[in-house]
Write a sequence for this structure.
């Protein structure tokens, strides 16, 4: 099953009321759980994001890995008030910024490899479709492209740090 097929499957599952989906095809095994509410379960028992559990042939128990939601690579909603904004921008100013959000759970990398320069830094201008970072998920390195155009005003995540789905990675000034 290809990465794109898994993304499409997750997209279709998110439209349904299913809370869990399992697929087995020979050696390939896929299990996806969603965050739909279940009666009788406390909030702590609910899964906070979709999860893919790959088959682990050499292990006795499968390990849980985060899924890649089928949303677009970046959101274009204005930034919420950023109280931890270390760049000195006020909350009112950050409301005018667009957000580039993580389309998946994984590890954030600012450059394509340790010996290469970063994709973007504060002050750089980006165009829609420009690569801005890499997110590693399940040993796949996914180049993230922006859906917005403007000037990078803040990098919200440190290099090689884990990120969650829909977490803000960059703030962009569209003007």
């Amino acid at each position: 099953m290809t990465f794109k097929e898994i993304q499409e499957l997750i997209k279709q599952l998110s439209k349904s009321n299913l809370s869990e989906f399992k697929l087995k095809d020979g050696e390939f095994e896929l299990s996806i759980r969603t965050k739909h509410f279940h009666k009788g379960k406390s909030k702590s028992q609910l899964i906070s994001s979709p999860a893919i559990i790959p088959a682990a042939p050499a292990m006795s128990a499968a390990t849980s890995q985060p899924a890649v939601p089928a949303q677009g690579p970046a959101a274009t909603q204005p930034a919420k008030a950023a109280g931890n904004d270390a760049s000195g921008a006020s909350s009112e100013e950050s409301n005018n910024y667009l957000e580039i959000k993580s389309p998946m759970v994984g590890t954030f990398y600012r450059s394509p490899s340790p010996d290469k320069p970063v994709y973007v830094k504060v002050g750089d201008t980006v165009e829609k479709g420009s690569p801005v970072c890499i997110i590693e998920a399940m040993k796949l390195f996914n180049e993230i492209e922006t859906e917005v155009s403007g000037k990078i005003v803040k990098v919200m995540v440190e290099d090689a740090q884990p990120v969650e789905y829909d977490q803000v990675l960059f703030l962009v000034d569209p003007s």
Q: What stands out?
A: The chain has two domains: 3-66, 91-173. DSSP finds two helices and twelve strands in the chain. The longest strand covers residues 131-137. The two ends are 42 Å apart (CA to CA).
